[in-house]
Amino acid sequence: MANKKKLDTKKTIVNEIVDKFKNSSTVVFFDYQGLSVFEVTELRTKLKEVGSEVKIYKNTLMRRALDALDLDLGESSTGPNAIAFSNNIVETLKTITNYAKGHEALQLKKGIIDGEVSDTTVLQTLATIPPRDELLTMLAGGMIGLVKDLSICLHLYSEQKNI
Q1: How far apart (Å, rounded) are the C-alpha atoms in residues 145 and 147?
Q2: How many domains does the chain have?
Q3: Taking Cα atoms as reference points, which of 76, 86, 62, 71 lies closest to residue 13?
Q4: What is the pLDDT of residues 117-153, one digit of tens each?
Q5: Same domain (yes/no): 103, 144
Q6: pTM for this predicted structure
Q7: pLDDT in tens, 29-64
Q8: Does one domain contain both 53 and 88?
Q9: Where are the alpha helices (DSSP H) in the chain?
């Protein structure tokens, strides 16, 4: 039988995993096997820049945490997994997918976005969303176009009334 100190340590780790799941809006599971230590460190650095944290836990501890959260990831929770925790959905996925383009060994498995399990197609789709600044620029451009059209219509209407 395992000693009490080891069991307490494992319980602490499981509680830490559960807290990370609860405090993150995005959790992405990906396979890092085949990447060198330098490449994993580089990916961690890039993810840290966008506000993500990468952790690697033992699968047994991860399964216990998933059971405590009533989540089932099926086959995605087996094998070597790295997990990215973040509150920024798009930037985290963009960073991982962009890094995966240059490193074939890196593969997305599953994700949990706002408490819902998502497969790789959903994750790939979310990764193609433009950044927030670009979306705001697109919105402003659309609004300026409407205001411009309205001003042209009003100008033409006022000219027509003066005739």
Answers
A1: 6
A2: 2
A3: 62
A4: 888 788 888 888 887 788 889 888 888 988 888 888 8
A5: no
A6: 0.73
A7: 888 888 888 888 898 898 898 888 888 888 888 888
A8: yes
A9: 4-23, 37-49, 59-68, 89-102, 120-127, 132-162
